[in-house]
Amino acid sequence: MTLTRRTFLSTAAVAAAGYFAPEPLFGQMELPQQPEMVLKARTNAATAKITVQKLRGNVSVLMGSGGNIAVLPGPQGKVLVDSGISTSQPQIKEALDAISADPIEHLINTHWHYDHKDGNLWMHAAGATIIANEKTRRRLNSPQFIPLFNATFPAEPADSLPTLLFTENHLLNINGTTLHLEHYAPAHTDTDISVHFTDADVLHTGDTWFNGVYPFIDYATGGNIDGMINATKRNLAAGTMSTIVVPGHGPVGNKQQLSASLDMLTAIREKVADLKRQGKTIDEAVSAKPTAAFDDKWGKGFTTPEMFTRFAYQGV
Ligand SMILES: [Zn+2]
């Protein structure tokens, strides 16, 4: 047989797809290929130290693996908000067992990002029903591409998907108390919710609040600066003046700190909008350093002053 270009290509494709691909071991579930940043996070999280901070009314927070994890134990089983990175399972389990012997009955995902839901699979296997906004399930159920990271996050296996879904608001009555779940859209993504433990007056904001640093805003999956500002206002309106506020990332805080974030977001949004109105390009806006007055306090996190200027520019 003469190898035409066509047969050569199809032979090569068969070889690439079949012959050279490692055979999955019998009985081993084949999981989709994750982007480099997820693999790196899993490597780091395998040895991460988990700290537990008691908040109020039996609510605690686990910190150290992905986004902050809130926990409410009780006779109807534990309720968790977010599931951290999967490879921290032994440390997270140890921390949860030290709080109480109750099994994990409910897991709430604040949004679709991997650092808040990578532990879904093991927590579901441990018995948890997963609750989220319906858009979180939609995003997790199909591949998501984030150009900023040049990364495609594959569709999740069925067992890690939320199954108890809501659109705007959901009340969860459990362990003698009520949790109020509220969808904010658009905000950091289009999937974000907050969770208010009403009796303890503890609010988990998911990634609609980064305490002490510029926020990451995921425009690729429906986030924008004005949505972040609105979400911050809604976080401020929830609960009371003494609400304990658990951010998606950073230390546990309060309404005063949340209010300082709102001032920062609003001021930078206005400065960047002015530059855009003057006809400045995105690079010229970055060169004008509209965040300069805030950088000492807010500019030392994952989102750099330049990144945050670009996030603001895109949305005004
Ligand atoms: Zn996020």
Topology:
Blueprint: H1 5-19, H2 36-45, E1 51-56, E2 59-63, E3 69-72, E4 78-81, H3 89-99, E5 104-108, H4 114-117, H5 120-125, E6 129-133, H6 134-140, E7 144-146, E8 151-153, E9 164-166, E10 169-174, E11 177-183, E12 193-197, E13 202-204, H7 225-237, E14 244-246, H8 255-277, H9 282-287, H10 292-298, H11 305-315
Parallel strand pairs: 4-5, 5-6, 6-9, 13-14
Antiparallel strand pairs: 1-2, 2-3, 3-4, 7-8, 10-11, 11-12, 12-13
What does this structure look like?
This protein has 316 residues and is of the alpha/beta class. Helices cover 36% and strands 20% of the residues. The strands form three sheets. Strands 1-2-3-4-5-6-9 form a seven-stranded mixed sheet. A five-stranded mixed sheet has the order 10-11-12-13-14, with no helix packed on it. A two-stranded antiparallel sheet has the order 7-8. Strand 2 (59-63) and strand 3 (69-72) form a beta hairpin. Helix 7 (225-237) packs antiparallel against helix 8. The longest helix has 23 residues, at 255-277. Mean pLDDT is 92; it is low at 1-27. The structure holds zinc ion.
Summarize the structure.
Helix content is 36%, strand content 20%.
Q: What pattern of helices and strands is seen along the backbone?
A: HHEEEEHEHHEHEEEEEEEHEHHHH
Low-confidence runs of at least 5 consecutive residues: 1-27
Please tally the β strands and state the result: 14
Largest sheet: 7 strands, mixed
The Rg value, from CA coordinates, equals: 22 Å
Strands ordered across the widest β-sheet: 1-2-3-4-5-6-9
Beta-strand content estimate: 15-25%
Write out the distinct hetero groups bound to the structure.
zinc ion
Tell me the structural class.
alpha/beta
Distance between the termini: 61 Å
Rough outline: globular
What fraction, in percent, of the residue positions are helical? 25-40%
Count of DSSP H/I helices? 11
- Average pLDDT confidence is 92
